[in-house]
Structures
1.
Amino acid sequence: MRTLVQTLLASGFFGRNTPYDLVAAIAVFVLSAAVFLGVAFPFAGIVSWVERRVWARIQSRVGPNRVGPNGFLQWLADGVKHVCKEDIVPTDADPVLFKMAPYLVVLAFVLPWAVMPFSSALILADLNVGILYMTAVTAITVVGVLMAGWASNDKWSLIGGIRSAAQIVSYEIPAGLSIFPVVLMTGTLSMQGIIRAQGWAPQHWFLFANPFTFVAANILFISALAEGNRTPFDLPEAESELVAGFATEYSGMRYLFFFMAEWGNLFIIGAIIATLFLGGWQFPRVSNNPVVMNVLELITFNVKVLFLVFVSMWVRGTLPRVRIDQLMTLCWKYFVPIAFANMIGTAIWVAIWPEGNPVAGYIMFAAGIVVAIVFIRRVVFYAKRSQMELYYYPTI
Amino acid sequence: MNTLRTEEMTLNMGPQHPSTHGVLRFIVRADGEVMREAVPDVGYLHRSIEKIAEKVGYHGFMPYTDRVDYVCAMFTNQGWGMACEKLAGIEVPRRGEYCRVIAAEFNRIASHLLSVGTMAMDIGAMTPFTHAIREREMINDLIEELCGARLTFNYMRIGGVGFDLPPGWREKALAYLDHFDPILEEYNALISYNKIYIERLANVGVIAADDAVNYNLVGPNLRACGVKWDIRKDIPYSVYPDFEFEVPIGSGQWGTLGDAMDRYMVRIREMAESSKILRQALKQLPPGSVLAKVPRNFKPPAGECQIRVESARGDMGWYVVSDGTAFPWRVHVRTGSFAAMGITQKLSRGLMIADLVTLIASLDVIAPEIDR
Amino acid sequence: MGAIGSYVENIKDAVTTIFEGMAVTASHFVRKPYTVQYPDRTEVRVQDTLPFRYRGILEVDLEICTGCLACERACPIDCIVIAVEKDPATRGMIISQFDIDIAKCMFCGLCSEPCPTGSIHHTTEFEGADFSLESLIRRFVKEPIHAYKAKKGPETDPRLAPILSRGMHYLDQWAQPGGDKPAAGTEES
């Protein structure tokens, strides 16, 4: 960053007496705008299209396939439609809070990208408290959602907002506790540090490091789904109960912001899990050229994240929604005690094998493969028994 | 000293709400997530169907009966047909009765599929809904081939049915049933046995057996409370005595007897039983005519009659008074959904808002059937 | 089973049932979608895939209409209006008006059932959207036309014969009241 600003100053583009801070501010502004507009927002849009297609296939449907090749531009059409719509602020709503809420939600979605470890070199800021920062800023969502629910002056919105507050605050705890085992094993909170502590091979991932981390990974994934308001935890916007929850009174651009943040959050959920448990961007060292290596790492990281995004879509297509009291039961009676037990278990494990137990990784990985094979056999069984026509292509 | 003060709020659920099937309205008094009471407000879909009957005559009323309950129109058709036949003393040919049963049982499966599908959707799972609707579309395809319409069938006539089975239809129907039975199993694996789903349904909206009888609940809602009452078995009509089938009743296996899960599972099991009846009916189909000789200008002798049909939503009563002219003097339909709406107020006390949605879905309330 | 037992049981239940559910949904990734991509991405027009008995928009073959008014009488909502006059010259019937208000029609099929020649019949056409209610009234009589008179023997007029045979085939689909023999297209058990 500093070198970039100095280069800019030296080029004389900004004139001679421009203060360093001003140029730095402009550079930061332009760069972050480019990242968010060029990466984060299109990603959120494309994910919305992918999700609709994935969901459609699960449901024996086709999904959006008219705008652009295979409906790829559907997200753009939807975005343009929302932007063109009238931005209605209800008469009795609190206008300032009502207008501000979507920005806060989007803020919570864009801030984590600062510590997103795309590859060994591609990271905006390798904070030494990276993972803590990530969990902290994603929790800003709750403020926006609560604000939206309150400011709408609508009872359904209010219930949605309150539900969301209860849900996100509660699930921060198991999510946080599930990060601890990894921190215990690595001794760092930095995203890059955690990734460097793992290897490229599955048996060296923290997912398979020991039974406790495996459970922690699952709890973290589920808690992250709950924080991202995803099915089975989409209570704040439960459309069959609360119309559209906190977003009931919103329209146009502001409505779009909420859902863009929701879809974009999928990437962040995936990135947290991939970083902590799936070895992040780790790739076998096949070349000494840093550019080649970085591209390969970037691809590895994105494949892992997109797989997790796909899993969350798939979960959304399968599970029903839990009730608010069950949501709390699940959090406080199941996840929190188990996460605590995990933490203690990992501490003991680390005390016994400070460098980690290599055999455990292989055993855990083998067990994972067995489960995957059992799963595939069930899939084949269901596909065959239904006597429906099979069709293997992703597009139709 | 300040104490924590809570305030009741009045929520207006419907008539435009995504989970009120059609135009239902509930006035909900809630304390946060917990409801004090939900008062049903009926009458948003009243179309004076009973009055129309007095104006259009006996033959002409048949298509209107489709609209009494458009999800299982075969039963309303059958009820009207049977009432008129009883008034005029017409005997339906045996093949006609079989065609009626076949169409009606297919319709029962279709209706229950819609019910369990929308139930899953109200709980928040979208996929089972589309799977159920997919199966329902396949049944609709069959019925469309049989009578030319997918929803408002107008298949039956006074004295039989309008159409005989088309060539090759029986094989198609049997092939469909072969496809349907594993799909039902798959549906169970997908959603019915899902832990979250069971947790959402079990112990919600528990109806005691005597309450159910007192509130006049009928059909699957009544049977889920453990009361074995099925018109097909207890007051046999049509050719139902020819078939062997079970009457599934609630077991309380997942929670309390008479909860939403029991009502749901009774519907699932009834679909399997309907499939059994259909196989038998399609195999035993006798030859002959399907429609008795009924004069075009149908004038039943003066009198009154009452008919009970086991529709997908339970005991459907048809009460017809004739004064000897071509128009009925009075027609009354007694439907299950109206009674089911009556009990929601009692059941809703102390439930959560999310449970109200479950409750409505589990009672399988169809809005047009409440008001007619 | 104690409290801990049911605790573990709950977790086990949740994991196994979700596992099964995910397997079912995963198996749908390799199944063909059931969607019909109406209107433009179907192999044949959807109208052509509909069964013969499909009750679409009504159509009248005036050439074989006998002017008997059976359909007008049968219609429960009076959406059919027919005007028939006696022709003083030939003493035959002249149909001067045959209107069907498709906006009112509920596609019940009661009109085509009593038709003696199958003149009024449902088609498989269902795309009836229009810009005004007025244009939904189908006026079949362009200029007054002589009603068809049923002949003793088979139809000999080469112009009318195919129309009549189509009409009679349509009628065969309906159960003939009082007929001892099962209607055409019935399989024997």
2.
Amino acid sequence: MKRLLILLAVVAMLAAACSSSSDETTTTAASGGSTDETTTTVVEADSELQAQVNACQPDETDGDLNLYNWTEYIPYGSEAEDYGVTDLVAKFEEQYGVKIIQTFYEDNETMLAQIEAGGAPYDLIVPSDYMVSTMADPEVGLLVKFNADAIPNLVNLDPLFDNAPYDPTGEFSVPYQAGTSGFGFAYAALDEAGIDYENGISWGLVFDPEMSAPFTGLISMLNDERETLGAALKYLGYSVNTTDQAELDEATAILKAANDRIAAYDSAAFDDLLMAGETVIGHGWNGGFLGSYDQASTDDYDAYEDFGYAVPQEGGIVWVDLMAVPITAEHPCTAHTFINFILDAENGGDLTNYTYYMSPNLAAYEYIDPEILGDEMVFPSDETMAKLEFIADVGDFSLNYSDAFAVAKG
Amino acid sequence: MTMLDDHPSEEASPELEKKAERAESWRGFFTALPTYVFLIIFFVLPLIIITVISFTERSRTGKPVLGEWTLEWWIKLGDPLVRTVGFRSVWLAFLNTAFSLLLGYPFAYWIATRKSAIMRNFLLVLVLIPFWSNFLVRTYAWRTLLDSNGLITSIGEWTGLWGKMLFTEPAVFLGLLYGYLPFMVLPLYAAIEHLDWNLVEAARDLYAGAWKAFRKVTLPLSMPGIIAGSILVFIPSLGAYVTPDLLGGAKTTLLGNYIVTQFKSGRNWPFGATLSVTILALMMIATIIYFRKGGKTL
């Protein structure tokens, strides 16, 4: 009996293995396999979509939009009402008579895996800078070149984002929102420790043993190897994109030494921890902090009096999320119309009034709440801007970063 | 007496018995068929797939490249970092298992020895109630209990016994103990409840003290429960991921987090697969040894 069972199991396994291996071939074909035959299929499918894109006209729609975006990154529904901004999803649907099907992701890597697997027909994605350079790489080839003729509002873009390292030719991506990472902090705690923050703060608040001592157990850092090791690299005066192992080792060592003073590595709740008093210094993204400060403020209480945000003087990281058409797109023209819609002055204003992130859309400035626009925490001064770096894709060296982060944590 | 009752067929004719047995085993086979199919598709196959992936080169985006084989990832297992992370995880899982057993045994014993069945069932339901809500939600609840304004912190400060525990190792430990204690209690309860108390009574009749009777009779008889419970607690603790992140502030790298990193920002699926296969293989070997060594009583 047992023998029969085993035999049956083996047969079933073989059958399943056969069918799965044929599946495997189709997936490889779709995502660029190694044999010549499959490569040709990819190029053909690709150029077919490219031809479709190149034929798109301004304001043309070719079906509902499958939007694959970060959570809480576009105002819609009750959230839009809470923030007192226009529901951009409803506005687009009404204006063009198509629906927007929203799907969300929480990190670039999840999105990458989805697009690479080709499981869902997403028309538009919003990857971060370094992810664009990975996806646009000819070897990877997951993005289609957009058609500038179908996006007249491109003229509204800030030239600051031209010739960016993640997309040197600017053919694959259009900026959506941008921001910085730095420290959110409680003024009272810095006052108590006798730290002068009027003329800028330093990454030493976490990495300098002496300066950091009063905040032991009251600091949170991002749980992200490039951001947090990047902060250490900046403190040491190196580039956040270094591929020099000695420099990375040095950064790893000072992060390891600071580990005892750090309460938590948290990329999701750094703002809540600060507001709740669990930390007094938090490493995080400006929009995260400012959104929380704003939500906590009432008619009687101004959270901005108690909490601040600044990019340390040594410089830091600027990031930008970009709109791009992936090779999974089935409605590329609607995607282009949507990009144009986001780049519209008024819509761009509503977007930033909701996200508290920096707008790459210069024309939108007149619609952005003057308080947000005048806020150096959202729109850094030129002087600060000059010291910021984009995170670049460092290729295989990224493995060294993730291992270094594990080593630093001990 | 009971021994004979368990095997009434021993006196039936051999031929009839054979026939009945065959019919029984066919019936058994068809009953188990859906489970076999399910396990092969959703357990055996994925296992084969990740084993294959662990021998492939990684692409620029971290995916496996089928057809380009390498032993690089298996060699990387020898890195000091992997050893440190692995040892730390095993130690934490071991501690959690030991404490679950220390806490769980008296508790399961107490429940199993309640006279009224209603009371026993009621207590069991209480053990199971936490499962009615999601583990992640419960871990967040712990975060509120342990933060500076939390109830547990207030009690600790009021009595002067402990301070804020959130983002410390005791918090991780507490969270794990809380999360996996039911997995220890349930098999222990099953083992103790089915125990033949006549044997304990016999031991007492033969002048064994309460402690000696427990050590010589109750404990060995409940061993299957102890081992089953320990396996059920040890394995998930070894891969614990949410608890160290949320309650420990992600301050130390454990196996679970290390593997997740490989699949996400590390962009190294093959190495993630290698780590997973290694853990699975070690666990499987341990379990097989256990079954060989007399776990048959389970």
3.
Amino acid sequence: MRKEKITLKIKRQDSPQLKPRWETFSLKYRPGMNIITCLMDIRKNPRTLDGMKTTPVKWEQNCLEEVCGSCTMIINGRVRQACAALVDKLEDPITVEPMKKFPLVCDLVVDRSSMFETLKHAKAWVPIDGTYDVGPGPRIEPEKQQEMYQLTRCMTCGCCLEACPQVNAHSPFIGPAVISQVRLFNANPTGRSNARERLESLMITGGAQDCGNAQNCVEVCPLHIPLTTSIAEINKQITLKLLGMLKE
Amino acid sequence: MSEIPVSKKVIVIGGGLAGLMATIKLAEAGFHVDLFSLVPVKRSHSACAQGGMNASVNTKGEGDSPQIHFQETIHGGDYLANQPMALEMCKRASGYVYLLDRMGVPFNRTPEGLIDFRRFGGTKFHRTAFAGATTGQQLLYALDEQTRRHEVEGRVRKFEGWEFLSAILDDKKIIRGITAMNLTRMEVAAFRAGAVILATGGCGMIFGQSTNSTACTGSAAGAVFQQGAWYANGEFIQVHPTAVPGEDKNRLISESIRGEGGRVWTYKDGKPWYFLEEWYPNYGNLVPRDIATRAIFKVCRELKLGVDGKDVVYLDVSHLARHVLEEKLLGVIEIYEKFAGQDPRKVPMKVFPSVHYTMGGMYVNDKQMSNVSGLLAAGECDYQYHGANRLGANSLLSCFYGGELAAQTAVEYIKGKEKEEPVSGGERVCELEVKRQNEINEHLLAARGKENPFSLWEEMGRWMTENVTVVRYNDKLKKTEEKLLEIQERYQDINLSDMTTWVNQPLVFARDLWNMIVLARVITRGALLRDESRGSHYKPEFPNRDDEKFLKTTVARYTPEGPEISYEAVDTSLIQPKPRVY
């Protein structure tokens, strides 16, 4: 049967200090709608189902094609990008909540800056000499490129942290994303020179060994990054390092 | 870092490829950078670039060279680009690809392990380096990582989640810094620097739906335009031939799809009709974007031969080898799968043209400096390099070249200034500018009118898309000008539906909207006055290129009554313009 209306239940919170509340919205259904078009409808006419005036719902967005990672939120209980969440594939009423593993800012906006901080500690870059033109880098076989490409697509969206049971208020686990980035840079012919320091950044309380192997991360990663393989590989590298057998 | 003297500091606005390239070059030159971005820089619009980046390395022995790349760039741009700058950009291209290679960008490889190159529009050479079909994302991440390294080493300070509001100009119209607004706390603050580089991208949002990210409003360029910076070639807006129309945005289906063998067709007399291949036997599906877009418009609107009578044609990759789809085109295939719900490996994609790229932009000289002393621009927000139509895979390149050049010029400018007069001073102008910006916010927050800013924006977008994109008529352009004036008046009767001072997104959007309307008027006026057809600008009433009158750069200056247009000679010192035939 063709839907005429859709119902959206949105968890709202005006600021970190105030209490959260749920607001319900009824929207006119159109083919091809996604959660972003729903939120855009609301901001044009911010009224709840009961006809009460409210403020436009706040959310983060940018590319709207699942390559920037901005619009990550929990939709019908699953963490994902709102732009790629098509209404036709969602059960009604649709619930929309902010991610829970990051500090709340407002409504669906959370502060994911901690993920970028962990990239700093892990030295997640290739330590090139400088940007002047010194010719091409090392040759890389196509298979290796394909392997690296899978890992370099990480948008730092935070889905893997959100879904991971080990990431919670009582645990310092840094989460899968950064561990996978360490794998990427340790596999780079130039990046390898910092491999030890990168591994050391993960040999802390809450480091790579704290993974509980729930495998939720690979399940929710929108880009299908082999996160658990990365964690296994890094734990292997850490063991080799401890045994003094890590190859330079 | 608060003790860093202003004379050692540069502000960069925008954390896409051009902004990050400038940042890295400035940090390497020993300068300190305050980097402002609406979003964490890793989420910038550069991530959306799919197909690749041009560099004529001729590793496939086809006889390609930077000189030919240059000629095709100029020809593709219908001779409106300043030639010496475009030549220099093409010469530097391979250096940038190799630099990115060293930074760890996973460019696709040949069996021997060399960087692979593919074909793109407007050329017959394999000239485009690529990383799957998410090249922009990969390039952006590489620069993001290098910027983070400089951040850790203390040379870069990031202000992510800040909106640029205005330049701070002193009595002599020299730039002293900027004002910006924190998008969470909504506080306005002044930041000082010796020079400011705008790398804020294009303005696709003016058209409602486009392939651009929602941050691409052109607001920053619109703001400095109202402060006296000139805006050039505004009327040249690229409409990409193949996108999936959507209510929130049109999703790009990269030209690389056709570069790897994808074919465009529709039904005619019950049989597939490959109209691009029939009309352009030399280049086929790889004619430049403006030409392919007009062809699709002709098929759908004039011949009424769109699929099912709609504004749709097929883009077909179902005949391509599976490994080509998986290894070279996956990112795009996934986008279509996710958003259109069908598998392009099996069924042809349904596409239609969409606003995509802003060829025009801030007026800059041959060193990326605007007409305002100390204010520079780079990347899609400047007007250089692409003329009247950009060739595919040249945009990423212009970000690197423009970004690097802007950084060099900023350094020279600050060093030169130090000798003339101290760059310090200017507390008073900072205070005044913050006050002025706060007053704008207070005014908007207090407004209790009836116009919703988002609805007003949609209305503008519909008018602009309908009348100021692929086919332009003077009477419709005049009506659009009137409409924009009306929208500007109705803006005075705005209502944000939100009076809070914590994450007030409607307030930010309303500020952007004003700047968008101002730029929409620049685009429309430029289009109205240019009575010819050139590149992306096509008027059926004036179907030919008119070099005598219009081989000129359009330069817009702000006046409260509307944009004032004048024309400037194009530097055609290297190649004689010839008819553009494909």
4.
Amino acid sequence: MNIDNYLYLSALLFTIGAVGVVVRRNAIVVFMCVELMLNAANLTLVTFSRINGTLDGQVVAFFTMVVAACEVVVGLAIIVTIYRSRRSASIDDASLLKR
Amino acid sequence: MVTNSGLVYLIALPLFGALSLLLLGRRADKWGHLLATALSAGSFAVGLFQLSEMLGRATESRPVTQKLFTWISVGSFNVDASLLLDQLSICFVLLITGVGTLIHIYSISYMSDDPDRRRFFAFLNLFIAAMLLLVLGDSYLNLYVGWEGVGLASYLLIGFWNQKAAYATASKKAFIMNRIGDMGLSFAIMIAFASLGTVSFSGVKENAHSASEATMTAIGIMLLVAAVGKSAQFPLQAWLGDAMAGPTPVSALIHAATMVTAGVYLIVRSNFVFDAAPTAQLLVAIIGAITLMFGALVGTAKDDIKKALAASTMSQIGYMILGAGLGPAGYAFAIMHLLTHGFFKAGMFLGAGSVMHGMNDEVNMRKYGALRKFMPITFITFGLGYLAIIGVPPFAGFYSKDMLIETALNAGGVKGILLGGTALLGAGITAFYMTRVMILTFTSPKRWDDNQHPHESPILMWAPMAILAIGSVSSGFLLSRGDALKHWLEPLFEEHGEHTELLPPIVVSGLALTMVAIGVALAVVKYQLSEVEAVAPENVTEFTQIARRDLLQDEINEALFMRPGQVLTSVLVKFDESVIDGAVRGIGQIAMGSGSSLRRTQTGFVRSYAMLILIGAAALIAAIWVVTL
């Protein structure tokens, strides 16, 4: 199987994630789209690691996973707190800093 | 040179008086005037002691110095704050402290009703201290400190009654016109430092001959500007008349002992500069001649007794400056006239104060008359001063003025005839206007209202006048006997060759006395033998009208300097407001404008931020892709 297909797949996933972040209002969905973008990037890293025959990309992929895990913890906590205080998970409603 | 640690007390005593009276404030009201007078007298005593010491030494070891502290020490440039007392300084020290003390005594009574008498005495002491520092400094820089101090003290005293707006303006006028002169002195110091590398009198004297004549001329002209400002000479004479705003003892102090004599001192002290710069020296003599005529002409038209005396001061200082501009032949006579003038002018100003004291502060001579009967002592002392100033032998002014006229005539060539002729004519006009003052005040019929009650002044006021009158009678004879003052000052000046005699001395004296007699006779005919009006007549000649307005000095100053200066200032203010302020405000406007337009991009919607980040990242990648392609 041609290894380039992995790259096409990751580009597709990244695009779906990016469009989701920009288009969707629900904070949880946006958050999942961000995760999708991160994992698309991970797939790219691993693919290039395979192409180049070195382990660098895989090591960075592990870093990304750790960072993503931390981000999930913090991000979900923020979303839950906002939902509790404002009864809304729409990110367009959270625009207080504009003023 | 001999050092002497006693010189500092000359300055320290009056300075201590000024500081303590000012710092103690109202607590010193009861005894402040006594302390100030005692300290001034103490300074005079120190001066007398120094004179006796000096007389006991041989001619070449007479000058003494005292180093106070190192003032400036930068590389090879060193200035010590040092005092120098030599044959010239001692004359001034005794004049300043002696006449100054008499004026202090007079002021105790004259100012007794003034609530601010203590402050007045503090300023008097400050004036004496500053003037002593001026004549005792051993370098131009030390002199400059005293010079500025004198300017400050005169400003404070002229504007002593500054609750009257006109008086406050007069003090500002004096201060500002003096600043022009001060600028000349500072330029002279800078030129001396830049070209000769030294600012001490001895240092400049050593270098005077090796330096180029152009340099010495530049220094000389700048020194002349300084002297012109401080001594109220043409063209910076306009402040002197307005300086009459101060209390009368101040006028006596300014005109006799301090302030206006500073310019003469500066020029005589800098004799080595002017001897090396003939052009500057000639300019000094010309300025002196112009001023002596200017003052004399103004004096003929003034009805205010103090302003008439002020004009005469200007004229007499003109004589001194003329003498100082005649080179080594004239220095000693300039100083001699300065000393005799110190006596008779102080005496006459105190006399004028005494007249005003008895006449409810009326200064218009047309409202006086017949005061001889009511103020006999003032009449006699003023009269002796009058005889001295017009130069009647054997009174003081005869000796000194006669010598100056003779020296001017003997200066040689057209220069001698012109300068000497001016001095002779000036002597005649002096006799005219001083006789006019005398007649209008004392001997003509009374013209004052019946509610005036003229009376003689108390002893504290007439005693100083009497002492000064004795000086007016005797000082000329004593100073010129056997050329005493000339020989005393001789070691300071360069030898001068035998001068040619245009006319024998006896003829010159005869000419001068003839001029004086004509002047007196004219005044007697015009004011004693004919009716004097109590109100100044309006239908007078064009010349009288101009002379009443000080020969248009203020109009000329205003047209030439004040109005163009005001236009320049308003243009600069507009420039400041439009260009400089505009630039500063413009920068602020740009920052605020760009801020408020960029603020619109901050919508607060997370998704639009994400969109922007995405577009930015895509653009960045596209840019890198384009570059690497």
